[in-house]
UniProtKB/TrEMBL annotation:
<dbReference type="InterPro" id="IPR000073">
    <property type="entry name" value="AB_hydrolase_1"/>
</dbReference>
<protein>
    <submittedName>
        <fullName>3-oxoadipate enol-lactonase</fullName>
    </submittedName>
</protein>
<dbReference type="Pfam" id="PF00561">
    <property type="entry name" value="Abhydrolase_1"/>
</dbReference>
<dbReference type="InterPro" id="IPR029058">
    <property type="entry name" value="AB_hydrolase_fold"/>
</dbReference>
<feature type="domain" description="AB hydrolase-1">
    <location>
        <begin position="30"/>
        <end position="258"/>
    </location>
</feature>
<dbReference type="InterPro" id="IPR050471">
    <property type="entry name" value="AB_hydrolase"/>
</dbReference>
């Protein structure tokens, strides 16, 4: 995989947010990538260098994670959406095409609801509207939500990746294991940080807002997702006016990793069209 851009920082709302950026000489626009629960900006190591050939491509560390400031008090996905909005404003990067994975999709949805003027399009990957419509994980997905902190960060990442990707995917892709582990080891999560971020997802519910979203939207979901089940993607695609829906057959919770070449083509095609 291409080398990943080093971290930069910006001060927003009194806290430091870390991000990586790849930008060509004449960018066609901005794409902001939002990582999921337990992830950092390095989640997008297969996307940033590719999108950065044509777009100003940004990926951030949510508050309390990676190179961003700690956040000892509880917060919500709406708070994290406000952080993303402040980052886009501080970097003069709006309106942006926003791509969110899993919890990052929760944040992206809140960003679209709370700050619609900052978005040019919305791509929702393996995510959910939350609330009463949310279809809960299967046993493997539930196990992935309870990380074993007696393991190293890299070992935990490999174990959780095995649980949430399609059966057999890890065994078929051993060349990616070192990168998965190294990304986690670079920015390990302490148990209390993981717990705060997990709690931030508990109040996520934009179900009542979906019909009012008025921007180009792409929903991508693997039909073998054990964590945020496929039915959640179906609900989003049905409920957001004009949404496009792409199903990845035999794919688990991590389409940007499991199907990164196809994922990049699909999202670039969508972004280019808008």
């Amino acid at each position: 995989m291409p080398a990943f851009a080093p971290a930069q920082t910006v001060k927003v709302q009194g806290r430091t947010i870390a991000y990586s950026e790849e930008t060509p000489a004449d960018p066609q626009g901005t794409v902001l990538f939002l990582p999921g629960l337990g992830g950092t900006r390095l989640t997008w190591r297969s996307q940033l260098p590719v999108f950065g050939r044509r777009y100003r491509a940004l990926s951030l560390d949510h508050r309390d994670t990676g190179g961003s400031d700690p956040a000892p008090d509880d917060y919500t996905t709406a708070d994290q959406a406000d952080d993303a909005a402040a980052l886009l404003r501080a970097l003069d990067a709006a309106p942006a095409h926003v791509v969110g994975l899993s919890m990052g999709g929760f944040v992206a949805l809140n960003l679209a609801v709370r700050h619609p003027e900052l978005l040019r399009s919305l791509t929702l990957v393996a995510t959910s509207a939350g609330g009463q419509t949310h279809v809960k994980p299967n046993p493997a997905g539930r196990e992935a939500l309870r990380p074993d902190f007696s393991l190293s960060a890299g070992e935990r990442a490999l174990h959780s990746t095995r649980l949430i990707t399609a059966p057999g995917w890890m065994d078929a892709n051993p060349r990616l294991h070192a990168g998965i582990a190294a990304g986690a080891d670079e920015h390990p999560f302490a148990p209390e940080v993981y717990a705060r971020q997990f709690r931030s997802t508990s109040t996520h519910d934009v179900t009542g807002d979906l019909s009012r979203l008025d921007l180009p939207t792409l929903v991508i979901h693997g039909d073998a997702d054990p964590l945020v089940r496929y039915e959640n993607g179906e609900h989003l695609a049905r409920s957001i006016p004009g949404a496009q829906f792409i199903t990845y057959a035999g794919t688990g919770h991590l389409p940007p990793l499991e199907q990164y070449e196809q994922f990049n083509r699909d999202v670039l095609t969508f972004v280019d069209a808008h």
